[in-house]
């Protein structure tokens, strides 16, 4: 009984933490860093293993050393988090340049302390000249006061992606992704064609497997993941280990299309043979999609 109560409390805390994270993001984009800090800190207290909460908190604290601590905590929870990796490198560079407080929050610190804060000892970064009225480069009809901290182009609220070093535009966010997640149509086409060829060849063998009543089920369970893994390895070799949703759809889709003739044949066969063909196809496509995340 106690265990059940604890599980329900944990689930409720996780739901509340998620709500606070959304609230913190909205407050940060609206410029209310105090409300954002309050929401993100409360989220980390409720769910200390939530990397999104720590990442959000790192974006609204002014002191760079504190940003570093939070970003390193994110990387302990999610070592492959590309946003945290890129932001940590940028924050460490600012610290190396002699700054102690984030450039975007120096004005707030100056107003709050009347220029008396020791954190303002380093010189101000050079201001960037901007037009008097800014419009989002993605939506020319939307006036905005936000600019991407990386490329300085104006962006609207809908386009802004909140990061620990400020808001960035969708293009800069995409460029921050690891190289193997930056793929193009050609990569997806190569992966899909490779998977299609492997799917066609493997389906010929599955036709014979499906003719073995119950043994065929066990063989299909083994063959599906094996073919999926083979398609992923072949795709990796030709595309230099490209990953992402596009590659998942291309390779998994290629396997399914390559197996369609088999499924059409088995639909005319006894139900057990059809089940074997469907099971093999699902396992192969699922394995490929899972490996290419």
Explained architecture:
With 293 residues, the protein is mainly α. It has 3 domains: 2-120, Tetratricopeptide repeat domain (Serine Threonine Protein Phosphatase 5, Tetratricopeptide repeat, Alpha Horseshoe); 134-175, no CATH class; 179-291, no CATH class. The chain contains 11 helices and 6 strands. It has helices spanning 2-29, 33-46, 51-60, 64-77, 82-96, 106-113, 170-175, 185-209, 213-239, 245-267, 271-291; strands at residues 134-135, 143-144, 146-147, 154-155, 161-163, 166-168. The strands form 3 sheets. Strands 1-2 form a two-stranded antiparallel ribbon. The protein has a two-stranded antiparallel ribbon with strand order 3-4. It has a two-stranded antiparallel sheet with strand order 5-6. Helix 10 (245-267) packs antiparallel against helix 11 (271-291).
Query: Quick check: average pLDDT?
Result: 79
* Estimated helix fraction: 55-70%
Inertia-based shape: elongated
Secondary structure tally, helices: 11
CATH architecture field of the largest domain: Alpha Horseshoe
Number of strands: 6
Structural class: mainly alpha
CA radius of gyration is 26 Å
Strand content: under 5%
* Tally of separate domains: 3
CATH class of the largest domain: Mainly Alpha
> What is the first-to-last residue Cα distance?
38 Å
Looking at how many chains there are and whether they match, the oligomeric state comes to: single chain
Look up the CATH topology of the largest domain: Serine Threonine Protein Phosphatase 5, Tetratricopeptide repeat
How are the strands of the biggest sheet laid out side by side?
A: 1-2
CATH superfamily of the largest domain: Tetratricopeptide repeat domain
The ordered string of helix (H) and strand (E) elements is HHHHHHEEEEEEHHHHH
Largest sheet: 2 strands, antiparallel
């Amino acid at each position: 009984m106690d265990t059940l109560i604890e599980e329900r409390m944990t689930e409720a805390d996780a739901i509340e933490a998620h709500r606070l994270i959304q609230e913190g993001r909205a407050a940060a984009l609206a410029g209310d860093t105090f409300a954002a800090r309050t929401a993100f800190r409360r989220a980390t207290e409720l769910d200390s293993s939530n990397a999104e909460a720590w990442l959000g908190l790192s974006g609204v604290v002014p002191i760079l050393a504190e940003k570093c601590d939070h970003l390193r905590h994110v990387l302990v929870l999610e070592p492959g988090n590309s946003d945290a990796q890129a932001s940590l490198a940028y924050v460490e560079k600012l610290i190396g340049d002699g700054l102690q407080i984030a450039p975007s929050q120096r004005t707030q610190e100056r107003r709050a302390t009347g220029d008396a804060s020791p954190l303002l000892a380093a010189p101000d970064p050079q201001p960037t000249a901007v037009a008097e009225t800014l419009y989002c480069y993605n939506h020319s009809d939307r006036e905005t006061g936000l600019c991407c901290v990386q490329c300085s182009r104006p962006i609207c609220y809908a386009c802004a992606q909140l990061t620990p070093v400020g808001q960035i535009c969708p293009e800069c966010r995409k460029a921050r992704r690891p190289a193997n997640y930056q793929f193009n149509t050609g990569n997806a086409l190569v992966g899909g064609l490779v998977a299609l060829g492997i799917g066609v060849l493997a389906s010929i063998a599955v036709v014979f497997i499906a003719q073995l009543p119950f043994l065929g089920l066990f063989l299909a369970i083994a063959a599906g993941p094996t073919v999926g893994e083979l398609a992923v390895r072949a795709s990796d070799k030709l595309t230099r280990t490209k990953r992402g949703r596009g590659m998942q759809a291309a390779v998994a889709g290629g396997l399914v299309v390559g197996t369609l003739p088999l499924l059409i044949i088995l639909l005319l066969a006894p139900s057990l043979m059809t089940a074997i063909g469907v099971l093999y196809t699902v396992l192969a496509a699922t394995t490929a999609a899972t490996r290419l995340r």
